[in-house]
Specification:
Layout lengths: L1 E4 L4 E4 L22 H18 L8 E5 L2 H7 L9 H16 L4 E5 L7 H13 L7 E3 L2 E3 L7 H8 L5 H8 L8 H11 L6 E4 L6 E3 L1
Parallel strand pairs: 1-8, 3-4, 3-7
Antiparallel strand pairs: 1-2, 5-6
Helix pairs in contact: 1-2, 1-3
């Protein structure tokens, strides 16, 4: 999860972690296969759980920017899932929970691998989830990693060294950011509808939020 505040853009929080298919794990959320679409659906679920349990701005509409049309459409109920039915039901319930608070969630597609900073950062954090940890994620009744509360990127960077292989290489790439074109475009559209908007940009389990 990659959280920005405006103005000026500043990282507030990030989340990442692996796809868990072990139903004995406390992190299990119904996934039965570790495909890209599985990761995308879990990412949406993590974003929704963060909006429900961590974010305190429940009176502000949210914009979910996604690059997987399949994941977004099965979670919103426009399509029916062809696999991972329990996982989709888990994400749908989280969406219902968020909307039950009176909060509106808008869905906007952003093309993947299009040099958009939010989407590219999301893809970077996916690689963090493929390592042995540490991770930052949420679950019912808790979570792990201070990044979900903000200011965690700095702490994560402090633990990375050149000897951390993939983690060290990825952490080292953090400062190189592109513009958040998709988030800015969505914010411009929805600013006319609301006094304040959270923008959630996610890909493979990562969220970007700005308020």
């Amino acid at each position: 999860m990659h959280v920005l505040g405006v103005p000026p853009p500043a990282v507030r929080a990030e989340m990442w972690g692996p796809v868990v298919i072990d139903d004995d794990s406390i992190w299990f959320c119904g996934a039965t296969r570790g495909t890209n679409n599985t990761g995308e659906i879990i990412g949406i679920g993590q974003a929704l759980m963060w909006l429900r349990d961590v974010d305190d701005a429940t009176d502000i509409p949210a914009i979910m920017l996604f690059d997987s049309c399949y994941a977004a459409n099965v979670v919103t109920g426009r399509w029916q899932p062809n696999a991972n039915v329990a996982l989709v039901e888990w994400a749908r319930k989280l969406l219902a929970d968020v909307e039950a608070t009176g909060r509106t969630v808008h869905w906007v597609h952003v093309k993947g691998h299009s040099a958009d900073g939010g989407n590219d950062r999301a893809d970077e954090l996916v690689q963090w989830g493929k390592t042995g940890g540490p991770y930052c994620r949420v679950r019912e009744g808790g979570g792990e990693g201070e990044a979900r509360y903000g200011a965690a990127t700095t702490a994560a960077l402090a633990t990375a060294t050149e000897g951390d292989s993939a983690m060290g290489q990825i952490y080292g790439s953090v400062p190189a950011r592109r513009s958040f074109g998709a988030a800015n475009a969505a914010l411009n559209v929805f600013n006319s509808l609301s006094a304040g908007v959270n923008v959630c940009v996610l890909s493979n389990g990562v969220l970007l939020e700005r308020q």
